[in-house]
Amino acid sequence: MRRRSFIAAVAGLAASRSERASSAGVAPRVNADRLWRRLEQLSVFGRPAGGSFADGVSRTAFSDADVAGREYVLGEMRALDLAPRVDAAGNILGRSEGSGNGLFPILFGSHIDSVRNGGNFDGDVGSMAALEVVATLEESGVRTRHPLEVVIWAAEESNFGSGLHGSRMAVGQIEPGEWERVEDGVRKGDALRRIGGDPERVAEARRASGSFHAYLELHIEQGGTLDRAGVPIGVVEGIVTIDDYDVTVRGFANHAGTTPMDARRDALVAASQLVLAVREIATGETGKQVGTVGRLAVSPGAPNVVPGEVRLTVEFRDLAETTVTRLGETLKRRAAEIARQTATEIEVQASSRHRGARAHPTIQSAIETAATRRALRHMRLPSGAGHDAQMMAQLGPMGMIFVPSLGGISHSPRELSRFADCAQGADVLLGTILELDGLDRIG
Amino acid sequence: MRRRSFIAAVAGLAASRSERASSAGVAPRVNADRLWRRLEQLSVFGRPAGGSFADGVSRTAFSDADVAGREYVLGEMRALDLAPRVDAAGNILGRSEGSGNGLFPILFGSHIDSVRNGGNFDGDVGSMAALEVVATLEESGVRTRHPLEVVIWAAEESNFGSGLHGSRMAVGQIEPGEWERVEDGVRKGDALRRIGGDPERVAEARRASGSFHAYLELHIEQGGTLDRAGVPIGVVEGIVTIDDYDVTVRGFANHAGTTPMDARRDALVAASQLVLAVREIATGETGKQVGTVGRLAVSPGAPNVVPGEVRLTVEFRDLAETTVTRLGETLKRRAAEIARQTATEIEVQASSRHRGARAHPTIQSAIETAATRRALRHMRLPSGAGHDAQMMAQLGPMGMIFVPSLGGISHSPRELSRFADCAQGADVLLGTILELDGLDRIG
Question: Predicted ipTM?
Answer without folding.
Answer: 0.78
